[in-house]
Amino acid sequence: MGDLPFPTGASPRAGKARAQGYSLPALAIRSDGARWLERWRIPVLVTLLLACVFFAWQGHQLGVETENESLNVPDREGREAYAEFRQRFGNDEDVLIALHDPHLLTPPGLERVANLTRELQRLPGVAAVLSLATAPRIVRVAAGAEVVPLLSPPWDRPDIASELEQALSEMPEWRDWWLSRDRSTTGLVVSFHDDATAPEKRAQVLSALQALAARWARDGVELRWTGIAVQKQEVTRYVQRDERLLLPLAVGVLAVVLALFFRNWLGTLLPLAAAGLTVTTVLGGLALAGYRLNAITSLLPPVLLVLAVTPSVHLLQVWWHEAQADDPLERAWQTLQARWWPCTLCALTTAAGFAALTSSQMPAVRQFGAAAAVGALVSLVVSLAGTTIGLSFLPPRIAARTPSALHPWLERLVTACTSAALRSPSLVLLLAVGSTLLLGLGILRVRNNTDLVRFLRPEAPLRQHTLWIEQHLTGPYAVDFVVRRRDRRPLSSRNDLERIHRWQEAMRAQAGVRNAVSVVDFLRRLSGAEFDLPAPAIPADDASVQEMFSLLERAPDPTLLRRFLPADRAQVRVHVRLGAIGTQELQRTAEALLLLAADHLGGEYEVRPTGAFFFLARDSNRLVQDQVRSFALSLVLVSALIGIALRSLRVAALALVPNLLPLVMVGGIMGLAGIDLSSGTAMIAAAALGLVVDDTIHYLAAFRTHFQGNALHAVRAAAESVGAALVLNNLLLVAGFWVGMAGSFLPTVYFSLLTGLAMILGLLCDLLVTPACLLLWRRRS
How far apart are CA 111 and CA 747, in angstroms? Predict the structure, then answer.
C-alpha cells in the first residue's frame, strides 16, 4: 500500500515478518540506536527531571485572574467609550442586595434596613448605598419642590407603612427596586468609587455581606446579592476551587483506569510520570509568560493529563506485545522505532486542532488553545524520550510478565466491530452516515447563547441569589445607553427631555425590560411638585427646564443625579434593568431598543449601548462566532497534516470520514438536549477534531504495516495490533475529559461531557467505519 508511507524505522524484512504473524529473533548485537540510547539516557533523564523541578516551581506561582480581563475581547474603541462612560457617570459595577424580612414594614424591620445601609456605607470603597432609608423622594412643600429621603426616622411612627406606600405610589418607576409585591423584601443598591473595584475591596464587601447574612439569619432575615462585581469575585473563587479539585481528581481517575487495564505498576506509573511532567511544564510556562488561570484555562490540567498519557500507552503496548529483543536497551529502541511516527503525527494533528482556537478574538480562548497545542507537543517529546528511557532500565523478566491488556470483553468488542465492518462494509457505512444525518438534524436547534448566571451550577449561591432577586424585585442585569446630540450641544431643552421620555416609555413596554430610568424621571417629578401639577410632567419650556436642573443640583446629596447626568449635561445615561437573560437575548433586546431610539429620538441624537454586562455579553457572542472560523481552520490544518504525512489527498479524505461523523452527531445531540452554543461548548469541534483523528492515524499506520496485498488480512491484523490501545486511549480521554464535569462552570462541564462523548463515538467509528472505508477503497483501487 504505497500511498500510506508511515515510516516505522524497521527493515522491510521486519515489517514482512510481523505482517505474516511470526516474531523477530532477539538481537545479539546492539544496534546503533540502542547504543545511542545507552549513551544519552542518563543526561536526558536528568534534564527532564531538572525541567520538571523548574517548571513545577514556576507553576506553583501561577495565579488566578481576579478581573476576568482575558474574557474581554480587545476592542479599543469600545473600551475607550466605556472608560469615558465610567469617567462621566461613575462605576457601574453595582451590587444589588435583597433583604427579605417577614416583618419588613414594622419599626424593627425598617430600622434593620437603616442599620444595614449604614454598615454598608462604612465599607471601604463604597460610594453610596441607596435603600428605603436613603433613596431620594420629591415632595411638595410650601416653598415649592424639595428632595428628601424616601423614609426618615423615627421608625416607630404609627403610620410609617402607609407613608411608604404613598411615597412609592408617587414613584412607580422605582417601586420594584425598593419593595416586593408581598411587602417582605426590599432592595439596596451599593455603588463603588471608580477606583474601588480592586479584588481585595470587592472581597471585603462580599465578606461583610456574608457575615451580616449569617448574623441576621438568626433573626429570620435573609440577605441575597448579585451584580457584575459579585460575579467577578465568584468566578475567581470557583476557578481557584477547580484548580484545587480537578488536577488531583484527574490523576486519581487516570491512575485507576491504567491500573485496571494494565494490572501492572509499570503501566500506571510511566504514563502518569510523562503526564505529570507535561502538566508542570505547560503550567509553569504559563506562569513564566505572565498569564493566570481563568474560567476557560482552569480546564487545562485534566486536558493536558489525557493528552500526555496516550503516547505512553501506545509505547507500552508495543513494548509488551510487539518488541522482541531480550536486551532492555534494544527492546526500548524497537518500541520507539515502531511508534514514533504515528505518535508524532497524532501530536501534530492534536496540536493543530487546539492551535485553531488561537484565531479567537478572546484572549482566554487563545491561551487555552495555545497551551493545549504546546502541551500536545511537549507530551510527545516527554513520552518518546521519558517513557523510552524508563523502559530501557527494565529487566527482560518484567517484559515477560505480559499484562492482561486484551481483556475478554475488549477482545470481543474489537473482534465484533471488525467482523461487522468486513462482512458488510457498505451497510456499516450507510448506517453510520444515516445515523449521523438523523442526529445531525438537531444542529438546527442549536442556538448561540451564553447565560452569565445559568452558566453556574444550580446550587451555586450567585445563581440562586440572582434568580431569587429577579423573581421578587427588579431585573438583576442592567444595560446602559448613553445619549448625546450630534451637534454636541447640552441635552437641556424641553424637546430633548420629551424625546427621551417617549423612548423610555416605549422601552418599558418591551418584553424582558423590567425598568428604564433616567434623569428625565427626576425632572418630571420635580416639575410636578414645584408647579403643583396634578401629575408629573416635563417642564413647560426651556427656562423651566433650567430651573428644575438647578433645583436638582441643590439636592442634599447630588450623588444619584451625577450617576445619570454629568455636570456639562452633554450626555444622558438611560439605565435599563433586564431579567436574567442570556447574551443572545440581550443582543436582540439591545438592537430592539436601539431601533426604538431611532424612532423616538431621530437622527439628531447618538445612542450607544455600554456597561460592564453589555460588554461581557457582546464578547461572549463574538467568541461563539469565532469558533466557526476556528473549526474551519482546524479542519484545514488537520487535513493538510494528514495529507502531507501520507502524501495522498485521497487517504487524507478517507481519514476524515470517521472523524467528522462523530462531530456532527455531537452537534445534533447538543441541539436535541437543548445545550446552547456558548463560550465553552463552542470550542468542542475545533479541539475534538484533532483528538478523534489520532485513532484513525494509528489504525492506518497498523494497516500499512500489515498490508501485503490482502486488505481483509491487514484490517484484522491492524485491529489486533492497535485495537486494545485505541480502546484504552479513548477510555483515558473520556475519563480525563469527564473529570471536567466536576468543574464549577456549566459551559466547561458541557465541553468536557460532549468532548468525551465525541471520543466514544469516534472510537466506534474507527472500529467500524475506518475498516469499512479501507476495504471499500482497496476494492476500487
Answer: 43
Buried b (16+ CB within 10 A) or exposed e, 369-384: bbbbbbbbbbbbbbbb
In terms of pTM, does the model score above 0.70?
yes
As a whole number of angstroms, the distance between CA 388 and CA 147 comes to: 80
3-state secondary structure of 748: helix
- Helices 684-706 and 746-780 cross at an angle (nearest 10°) of 30
Q: Please give the Cα distance from 439 to 781 (Å, whole number).
A: 32
- Going by the DSSP 8-state scheme, the letter that residue 493 receives in this structure is S
Report which residue type is found at 208: A
Q: Residue 29: is it exposed, middle or buried by C-beta count within 10 angstroms (0-12/13-18/19+)?
A: exposed
Residue 386 sits at φ, ψ, to 5 deg, of -65, -45
Extended strands (E) in 308-450: none
Q: What is the pLDDT of residues 24-76, one digit of tens each?
A: 344 446 788 888 888 889 999 999 999 989 998 988 888 888 766 777 777 77
> Which grid cell is 241?
476551587
- How far is Cα of residue 461 from the mean position of the Cα atoms in its chain? 19
Residues forming beta bridges with residue 576, ordered by sequence position: 479, 516
Q: What SS3 state is found at 19?
A: helix
**pLDDT band of 10, cuts 50, 70, 90:** very low
**In this structure, what C-alpha cell is assigned to residue 485?**
446630540
Buried b / exposed e across 745-774, counting CB within 10 Å, b at 16+?
Answer: bbbbbbbbbbbbbbbbbbbbbbbbbbbbbb
pLDDT at 221 over 70: yes
- Cα–Cα distance between 139 and 50 in angstroms, integer? 75
Mean pLDDT of the chain: 83
Q: Rounded CA gap, 75 and 67, in Å? A: 17
pLDDT of 517 over the 80 cut? yes
User: What letter does residue 289 receive in the DSSP assignment?
Assistant: T
